[in-house]
Write a structure and sequence with these properties.
alpha/beta; Rossmann fold; six-stranded mixed beta sheet; two-stranded antiparallel ribbon; 12 strands; 14% strand; globular; GTP binding; P-loop_NTPase; G_CP_dom
């Protein structure tokens, strides 16, 4: 086992374990144990490079129809081998859905005139589908599957679907960046990620820390995250507390990726609506100051919105100057999360937009009124009902 440290916040972290010395750095340090895979040098040589596993993965996902064999022509003097013709189409750069012109209610739809014009000028990679155009302007478009979605609901991604689509990662050389929402840590935590990643290193990124209350002790948050992933028996390379909105911790993630990437493809994994697209946009924005490749990639970056399931297909991004691709993968829809049971038109009102505030129950005014009426105030909660908007009511019978 090896031990690594990672910077995130501007305070020192004092560890209770006597085995570790007190570490001081300009940010807060999060410690995590991990299993480092055995190093193997990439073969050197000249000539055209073979397609990477990531490029093969992207090609498979963009195929509308199964591979067909082109039959040999009859009465041909030349013996020609049958060719494999995989029907592959361009995808929307905002959500990864294959472009299509037949169903205007489905993701990937573009008008036939636009499609033919872009195809004529070899610009299909610059096309944004109609759904993504609406999402980018703040409209709440129903997602897929259980949200009363469109006829193309087969693109709804479950945990098992994602494991099957990314099964090649176990034997490939890749760097996994796993995202989890700090506001819903256990609910958004994908299980069995190590079964998917194999021996590949995993970087844990905790998103949306800007939503935590102002007086939050991030040292305690970091300790809690490390304890939580230890209980879940997941060995990771490092842990980062980040905010895609304020860019807190993003520089540390970039440094870790550049250090550990070593020419490998980088895959961003996470459940739906944990902020994968926002995280990638924050990465590209920060990297663009020093990397012209990342600056160019910013022109066609994934669309981000409050709708779960915004990303419907794998999106390949040329984000690194030194080789390797960045892949935004579809978010996994977990049935136990709030987004799986709440209609999409209500998600915008439930999604936190500012820092969370702690509330105490009951208030001193309510206690005073109940005391005057002779109500029991042994612990102040008996007989109270707590409403969370129009979504939840909690009746305290006895406490």
């Amino acid at each position: 086992m090896a031990l690594k440290t990672l910077s995130t916040f501007l305070t020192p972290l004092s560890l209770p374990n006597p085995k570790f010395p007190q570490i001081h750095s300009k940010p807060c340090l999060i410690l995590c144990e991990f299993s480092r895979p055995s190093k193997s040098r990439l073969p050197e040589g000249t000539g055209a490079a073979a397609p990477s596993p990531g490029e093969k993965f992207l090609e498979r996902q963009q195929s509308f129809e199964p591979t067909k064999l082109i039959p040999k022509q009859n009465n041909s003097k030349k013996k020609e081998k049958p060719l494999k013709a995989s029907i592959s189409v361009a995808s929307c750069y905002g959500c990864g859905a294959p472009l299509q012109t037949s169903d205007n209610d489905a993701p990937g739809f573009v008008h036939s005139e636009t499609y033919e014009l872009k195809k004529k000028h070899h610009q299909l990679k610059t096309v944004l589908c109609g759904r993504c155009q609406l999402l980018s302007h703040g409209e709440m478009i129903t997602a897929v599957g259980g949200h009363g979605g469109y006829s193309g609901g087969k693109q709804f991604i479950t945990a098992e679907d994602l494991r099957q689509k990314l099964s090649h990662l176990r034997d490939a050389k890749a760097l996994i960046v796993k995202l989890v929402d700090v506001v819903d840590f256990n609910g958004s935590f994908l299980s069995r990620v190590r079964d998917l990643a194999g021996a590949n290193p995993i970087i844990m990124v905790v998103t949306k820390v800007d939503l935590l209350p102002r007086d939050t002790d991030f040292n305690c948050v970091g300790d809690w995250v490390v304890e939580a992933i230890t209980r879940k028996k997941l060995n990771v390379l490092s842990v980062h507390l980040t905010s895609s909105k304020s860019l807190v911790g993003i520089t540390g993630v970039i440094s870790e990726i550049q250090k550990e990437k070593k020419g490998r493809d980088v895959y961003i994994l996470g459940s739906a609506n944990v902020g994968k697209s926002a995280f990638i946009n924050a990465l590209l924005k920060t990297m663009s100051y020093n990397d012209p490749v990342a600056a160019a990639a910013q022109r066609y970056k994934p669309v981000q919105s409050a709708v779960p399931g915004t990303t419907l297909g794998p999106i390949q991004i040329n984000a690194f100057f030194g080789g390797g691709k960045l892949y935004d993968t579809p978010g996994v829809h977990l049935h136990h999360r709030q987004t799986a049971v709440v209609p999409s038109e209500d998600l915008s009102s439930l999604a936190p937009k500012s820092r969370l505030r702690g509330l105490s129950f009951p208030s001193s005014q309510v206690l005073s009124d109940n005391t005057n009426k002779g109500a029991s105030t042994v612990n102040g909660l008996n007989g109270f009902s707590i409403f969370w908007g129009g979504l939840v009511r909690i009746d305290v019978l006895k406490s």
